[in-house]
Structures are given as structure tokens and as C-alpha cells.
Design a protein that fits this description.
Largest sheet: 7 strands, antiparallel
Helix content: 10-25%
Subunit structure: Monomer. Interacts with DNAJB6.
GO cellular component, one term: mitochondrion
Order of helices and strands: HHEHEEHEHHEHEEEEEEEHE
Radius of gyration: 20 Å
Number of strands: 13
Cofactor: Fe(2+)
Protein name: Nucleic acid dioxygenase ALKBH1
Distance between the termini: 27 Å
Structural class: alpha+beta
Shape: globular
EC number: 1.14.11.33, 1.14.11.51, 4.2.99.18
Length: 367
């Protein structure tokens, strides 16, 4: 009832009021949050472009055939598509392992680079795996480097001074993640989507992500793709102004969210990370084993039991989110820049995520 009253109230910074409401509420007071596993109210079924992705390409990306996906939209948010976990059994594990073991490696950029020497941020996985595997339940144990990871950027890296991307600050985009993104975008009607930049966010139970709009890409006609793994979260989707109250929704492990068209430039935020609704250490979809016969050309790799043990321990109190975007339209180039090396200064670690002690929520630019 309190959330509904705040939603109706509107006025100055209605988004911030609801952000704080969900940041502070316990898990038993979330009746106003949209749950796409039991859709109703403003939720409606959304049509997908089934013929745009062959079953073979879906399998190669670790996805069910598009004909088996469920997709939903929200009234008042044209261009917003929510796809509850379309991954094949065991395939989420590949993306979790990539986000923890491979993608944080150089030449990609992470928050630890801001205050550690390059040689200290090499092989975060190797430096952390034994500590993670032995981790107990005490919150006073020192954190591993992987647990201090807050963000990783891929492809075109954002310039935090100019708030722009640059041709001068680019590293190769992972081919497996590009293939996954292309299939999801095509299924949502965006054939020819090019995965050119990615931001990975690493959340813990005390993490949140501030109110922001993703508008720095030069091509807004292409969608923003969001993939979630691990524990659950509350996602707030607002309007073109912060005075418009947002809609709250759950995101669970394996869920995919697509923001396109009108919804591409809407304010959004993550006020809260929650234990998965099954009440178990990990959601059951992450306990499923990968089939032994992978299709020819699959981008999915089997994870060793040893590697998954480390990933599972990490995810017991964490959530990983991958947001993928196309920066440039076909044939488009970056405008000429002067007086910059293209890299700029990255934000402080806390300007991305805010812990439970934060009093002021700063806008950020990833979901």
C-alpha cells in the first residue's frame, strides 16, 4: 500500500522516493513488485520474431528454441521486452564462469584497475579461487579480489570525463557474448544488431545501482540487452523524467530484459538485491547440469566441477548482470575529438554501486 501511495503521489523526484522505499523494505513487503513468473495486471504477452533465429543458432548460444520462449511487455512502456529464463539447462553456468574467470582479464577494464597496479589485477580468478572455495559464513573474513570486483567493461570503453565512447579506447569484444546477444536481439526484431560495448556489474546483497539513463551510445535505434545470473533483484523502470514514478519488477537468474524504442532512454535503477525466491543457496536453474552433447559450433563450454564450485560459492551472496549495447550505427563513425586520449578517468568504485550505508544515491549509467 505504501508503494502504491508513493506511485500515485508523483511530483518532484518520485523515482528517488520509490528507490528509497524498495532499498529499505524487507522481503515480506514487496507486494507491488511485478513478477513475470506470475504475470498479470499491466503485463501482456509480447510477440517474438521466431523465424529470425534458427533452432540450431539458439542451441549454439545455449538458448531454447525461440518458439519456446515466453516474452512479455508492460503497458505504458513500448519497446520494453522481458524474457524469463530462456537458457537451456546448465548453460547459465558458462556465462557466470566467463564473467568471473575470463572477462575480467586484460585487456578488459575493471574497477580494481583504479587503485591497483596492473600486475596485481592479473588473473583475479587464480588469486581468488582458493579463498572463495574455503569461505565460511562469517562476514568478517577478508574478501577475495573477485568479491571486490564491481564492474568490467568490454569492447568500446566509456570515457568518464567526456561521457562518450571513443575509437581510441577499444578492445576486442568477446565472440561468445556477441553471438548470444545477436540471437536475442534478432528474436526481438533487431536483426543485424552488433554487440560493440558491454558493462558487467557484480552485485552483493548490500549493493544497489543508482538512477540513470543509458544515452551515451551514438545509435539509440538499437536495443539495450540485459542478462542476469545468480541471486534476484528489484529493477525499477521509470519515464523520461525522474518526476515520473517507476514500475518495480523482479529479475531472477537467467532473465533477459530488452529496452528499445521509447523504453531505450528511460530512467532505471536497481535498488535492491534479494535472495532467490526458492529459499535455497542457489536457484534451481543453476544446479542443472549441462548436456554432454553440445551442437557443432556451440559457444558454450563445459565448466569443470572445480570451477563451478568457485562460481557457486560466489553466487550464494551475489548477482551478475551483463548489459550489451551497440554504440555505432552501420557505417557510422565517431566524431573527431581533440585534446583527449580517449580513455579519461574512470569513476570511483562507489559511484557504480552503493552499499547499505550510502545516504545519497548518485546517477549511474548501467543496469
Amino acid at each position: 500500500m505504501a508503494a502504491a501511495a508513493l506511485t500515485r503521489e508523483g511530483g518532484e523526484d518520485a523515482f528517488r522516493r520509490l528507490f528509497r522505499f524498495y532499498r529499505q523494505r524487507d522481503a515480506s513487503d514487496l507486494r507491488g513488485v511485478v513478477d513475470f513468473s506470475a504475470p498479470g495486471g499491466q503485463v501482456f504477452r509480447s510477440q517474438l520474431s521466431i523465424s529470425s533465429v534458427s533452432d540450431q543458432d539458439a542451441y549454439r548460444a545455449g538458448l531454447q528454441p525461440v518458439s519456446q520462449w515466453k516474452a512479455y511487455g508492460l503497458s505504458g512502456y513500448p519497446g520494453f521486452i522481458f524474457i524469463p529464463n530462456p537458457f537451456l539447462p546448465g548453460c547459465q553456468r558458462h556465462w557466470v564462469k566467463q564473467c568471473l574467470k575470463l572477462y575480467p582479464e586484460k585487456p578488459n577494464v575493471c574497477n580494481l584497475d583504479l587503485h591497483m597496479a596492473p600486475e596485481k589485477t592479473t588473473d583475479l580468478w587464480g588469486q581468488s579461487k582458493e579463498q572463495l572455495r574455503r569461505r565460511g559464513s562469517s562476514k568478517w573474513e577478508p574478501r577475495s579480489l573477485l568479491e571486490k570486483l564491481r564492474w568490467v567493461t568490454l569492447g568500446y570503453h566509456y570515457n568518464w570525463d567526456t561521457k562518450k565512447y571513443s575509437a581510441n579506447h577499444h578492445t576486442p569484444f568477446p565472440s561468445d557474448l556477441a553471438f548470444l546477444s545477436e540471437q536475442v536481439a534478432a528474436a526481438c526484431g533487431f536483426r543485424g544488431f552488433q554487440a560493440q560495448a558491454g558493462i558487467l556489474n557484480y552485485y552483493h546483497f548490500d549493493s544497489s545501482l543508482g538512477i540513470h539513463v543509458d544515452e551515451s551510445e551514438l545509435d539509440h535505434s538499437r536495443p539495450l540487452l540485459s542478462f542476469s545470473f545468480g541471486q534476484s533483484s528489484i529493477f525499477l523502470l521509470g519515464g523520461l523524467k525522474r518526476e515520473e514514478a517507476p514500475t518495480a519488477m523482479f529479475m531472477h537468474s537467467g532473465d533477459i530484459m530488452v529496452m528499445s524504442g521509447f523504453s531505450r532512454l528511460l530512467y532505471h535503477a536497481v535498488p535492491r538485491v534479494l535472495p532467490n525466491p526458492e529459499g535455497t543457496a542457489l536457484p534451481s536453474c543453476l544446479n542443472q547440469a549441462l548436456c554432454s552433447d553440445l551442437p557443432v559450433g556451440s559457444v558454450i563450454e563445459h565448466s569443470s566441477d572445480e570451477d563451478w564450485q568457485v562460481c557457486a560459492k560466489y553466487l550464494q551472496s551475489s548477482r551478475i548482470n551483463m548489459t550489451i549495447r551497440q554504440v555505432l550505427a552501420e557505417g557510422q563513425k565517431f566524431p573527431e575529438e581533440s585534446g583527449t586520449n580517449g580513455k579519461g578517468q574512470a569513476p570511483s568504485e562507489d559511484s557504480y554501486h552503493e552499499n547499505s550505508k550510502a545516504k545519497r544515491h548518485k546517477p549511474n549509467r548501467v543496469s
